[in-house]
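Teaching note: in complex prediction, the entire set of molecules is handled at once rather than each chain in isolation. The prompt given to students was simply: 'Predict the structure of this complex.' The entities are:
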Amino acid sequence: MKALLATISLFFTFGLINGSVATAHEISGYMAVEGRGFLGDPLYPEQKRNNASVAIQPEYYHEWENGSSFTFSPFARLDSRRSHFDVRELNYLWLGDPWELRIGIGKVFWGVTEFVHLVDIINQTDLVESLDGEDKLGQPMVYLSLPMDWGTIDLFVLPYFRERTFPGRDGRPRSSLVVDTDNPTYESPEEERQVDFAVRYRHSIGDWEIGLSHFTGTGREPTLLPGSSQSGDLVLTPFYEQINQTGLDLQLITGGWLWKLETIYRAGQGDDDFFSGAFGFEYTFSGVFGTPADVGMIAEYIRDERDEEATTPLQSDVAVGLRLSFNDAATSEMLIGVMQDTKTSARLITVEASRRLGSSCKVNLEIYVFSNVPPEDALYDLRADDYVQLELTYYF
Amino acid sequence: MKQLKLTLKLSLILLLLPLVVAAQTPEENGLAIAQEADRRDAGFGDFTADILMILKNKQGREKIRKIRIQTLEVEGNGDKSLTIFDEPRDVKGTAFLTFSHKVRNDDQWLYLPALKRVKRISSRNKSSSFVGSEFAYEDISSQEVEKYTYKRLGDEGYDGQDCFVIERYPVDKKNSGYKRQVAWIDKSEYRTLKANYYDRKGSLLKTLTIEGYQKYLDKYWRADKMNMVNHQNGKSTKLVWSNYKFRLGLKDRDFNKNSLRRAR
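The expected output is the structure of the full assembly:
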């Protein structure tokens, strides 16, 4: 709340100074309706076969003549099971020369790989919104970016911690034990008011993209400990450790090949420090079979030193993907992914397809199939949760 | 006396000059025309413009894209450019940053606003369609002289103007979608008025016609309309340019990954 007030007062201060307007009071955004159908019967009595929901994310944007700007973007989903609200963005961008300073709630992405985002740590994952971890909660921040001839330095002060969202008792898919998000525990006595810091160096040198980062503060990925809720039910309690994490992300272009590497070294979570990494490539064939379509192949290997102790389901997996871009007027696209655990037989198959309808609507299809998941695999709880989801989005 | 001699010598040279040009091979001649066109456009500094892209399918149904571009001239290297999408609205804020190079592949980054992600992408697939249009990436990228070899085919009238007809061949034969291109360039101002694109098998693939040239800053010609017709699939894409602005004082800092993320 304090960050919010600070942002608003800054907004008015600079607004008065700057005066003239480049992009005045622009409102855009989207509304979406979504239906999700599960292919099998639920494992837990609170869950249902089908689910329908609506979501909205408007955005207000105002830019002054000198390039400074203000952004406000709230998000809401209304649903019988996963209703939630979040402020994705509420920030003032002060554009200097050559630096820029962003104050308020914002979103930042770090990294290069497609199937996992190990290095990306600033924003908390919104797991209620999607399983792929690509939806993020707004993060209060003071973010200074300094572009220089020898690369860009990004400095972050993160004054407030956001807890990870997890599906509730009637959420689907969910873990067999419900995560008790009402009673998180922290290593830091400051709990969510602990101030975190991060620094990142990034640069493009010829065909290389390089990113080197360090984060110190409350880990975004909790350790889930068995416990009991206030009503006495067996639950998982999220425990947020104080961690230090160094990350490296590299990408090299050689002709049509993109080579990608992300690796992190984390200290403070569990008894031992550990490495985790993802390495892979992407290659695109254009104009296949005499059509304008492009076909991209993606392959990544993901390894987490903690093995079964890992707080993520992908600890030793090979992921392959096929990206089809039809290059038609409706921008039809499809991404098929297969993630195969190399130690257990577990396999996750995903399909994402989309195309534009008319000039301002888009239809998205998403399919998740959990196949061959043995009891020892982290995805075991999701074994009956294969689903098909259809979403229609209107952009304004 | 000495002065007179020099003047005589100079006029002799000047008299002989057209002969020298004529004595060039068709290849040298073609290159000289491309270089002259490039020289005439040098020094613009920077410019911005709005583009309305109209995609037309075989049945004549139209789809629209709205794009803004910003270009910075870079001395001794290819231009830097920022291409920002306003419509369709689902791709609003999507932007490309391109550092073009005279010889090696261009450097290119794509910004995806929903994920706030900047992605370095390969610029090698030059023949790929640009956002589903009949323009390929290689058609809209910075047309550096060094990206082609040339040959002058002869002269021809086009649209009432006396034109050079030159043929050009992509240097990067492996990745270009074309075997050759034939361009009609008017002799008075060195503006491209029409171009035919031949696919890798040598058949006519597309024709580009450029209309409505206007002069800016008393020197630089920019067109209002470009129409690319694909003869093989019956589709076409028209670009309607407007709101050209020159020398806004754009700098390198307006063409980095931070400005790509800020692009609206």
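Point out the following to students. The two ends of chain B are 67 Å apart (CA to CA). The CA atoms of residues 45 and 73 of chain B lie 5 Å apart.
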